[in-house]
Structure formats: C-alpha cells, structure tokens
C-alpha cells in the first residue's frame, strides 16, 4: 500500500481531482492500478450514485458493494440489453435442466434400489426449500 | 393505450416535465401506472444514463433493456451490498450442488446399468461446455 499512498485513486485520477486518501470514499475500493473498474461503474451507475450508495453502507460492507457494482457494470457494458440479468436467466434455465436430469436419474435409480433413492434428493438438493411460499 | 395517451409517462411525471409521447425515449417502457419502475432505475442508474443506454440501442431491444435495468435496480434497492449479484452467487452455488448430486446419482446408477449411465449427463447437462470463461 506504500507505493500507492501518494497516487490518487482510480476515481480521483479519472475525475482529475486531488485524492485525500483518508476521506475519499472511493480510494479503498478503486485502486489506481485498476482504472477500468472505476470507469465501468462511473459509466453505468454514475459517480455520485456510487458514492451515495457506498456512503450509506457501513465500512465493512463497502468492498463487497463496490465489487458487486463493478461486476454488474462490466456485464452491462458487455451486454447493454440484458447485462447480468442475462446470466441470471442462463443460470436459472441450466438449474432447471440439471434438476430435471437429477429427478430422472433418481427415478431410474429407484427402479433398482426402491423409493429411498428419491429421499436424499428431496432433502439435500433444495427441492423442499426451493419455493419458500410452497406449503409442501 | 388510448386512456394513457394524454398522461405523461412515469419518467416525465416523476421529473415534472411535459411528455411528448412520440419523442420521449422513456414513454413506451415506463407507463404512468408503474411509477416505481422508473423511480428505481432513476435512483440506481440515473435518468440520463438510462436515456443514453436506451438511445444507443435499436428500438426492438429497448423494452428488454428497460426491463433488465428495472430488475437490477429493484434488487440493488432491496440488497444495497450485493444487488442481483447475490442472486447470481446463490444460483451458481445451487447449480454446483445439483450437478454434484446428479454426478453421484449417475455413479450409483452406473453400478447397476454400467458406464453408459454417465453418458447422457456429459452430453446434455452442460458439464462439457460449463465454464467458457468463468470469472470466479
């Protein structure tokens, strides 16, 4: 951290302003050697929205927030139509597919070892807690 | 659509400006009866970023873009630290878990019907193309 203590953070460098490391809300999460990370969140969310969001969190949560914003921003710039919602859709589809495959494998297995083949699936694979609103 | 043709869209209403339905980039995707949808994207991304993003897309892609932005914004307001990246993480974890369960079920099945039990999984369940460029 010594080497970067005199350089402005990526945000202040991009915004061409003086960086007071102690007070700058961006400095800990947008180091000068990752300029793209700040440029992405600035482009997608806007500097002031990012600063506002970070300031409203307590210090221990800010790193995760900065990183999740950077992740969303990167996806949105790569895919302006769907952003990371496209990934959510792919993951949901794939999960459904693998759950169906598992159900079929368990049914096949049940023909050899009996109905207890279905039990571990119901207990461990999220079938029971999958739908919090489902009473069963 | 007749009934809302004279009301400003949710964006223009929120911004207290006149809405020229023909030219307003928000009007088709932020109808006056869904004020929260615009308020959310405005709060998270900023009005001008949303307008810029929609304007850079062709008209056929704008509805999906507006809806995916609204989805991301809603998640970010509900969970300021992780936003919808939290959901991605949950889905990735659950997918890994169900894939492991499927692998075990197929291994069990292979003890009864032989190694061909493993083949459909490798072909259909994404084990082969699973991680093209996994960021984690």
TrEMBL record, chains A, B:
Signal peptide: none annotated. PROSITE patterns: LOB. InterPro entries: LOB (IPR004883). Residues 7-109 form the LOB domain. Belongs to the LOB domain-containing protein family. PANTHER family: LOB DOMAIN-CONTAINING PROTEIN 32-RELATED, LOB DOMAIN-CONTAINING PROTEIN 4-RELATED. This is LOB domain-containing protein. It comes from Solanum stoloniferum.
């Amino acid at each position: 951290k010594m080497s970067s203590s005199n350089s402005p953070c990526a945000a202040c460098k991009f915004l061409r302003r003086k960086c007071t490391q102690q007070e700058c809300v961006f400095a800990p999460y947008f180091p000068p050697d990752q300029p793209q990370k700040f440029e992405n969140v600035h482009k997608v969310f806007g500097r002031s929205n990012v600063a506002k969001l970070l300031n409203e969190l307590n210090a221990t949560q800010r790193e995760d927030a900065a990183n999740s914003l950077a992740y969303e921003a990167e996806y949105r710039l790569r895919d302006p139509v769907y952003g990371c919602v496209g990934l959510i859709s792919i993951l949901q589809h794939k999960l459904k597919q693998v759950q169906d495959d598992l159900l079929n494998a368990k049914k096949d297995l049940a023909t050899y070892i009996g109905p207890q083949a279905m039990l571990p699936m119901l207990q461990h694979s999220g079938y029971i807690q999958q739908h919090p609103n489902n009473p069963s």
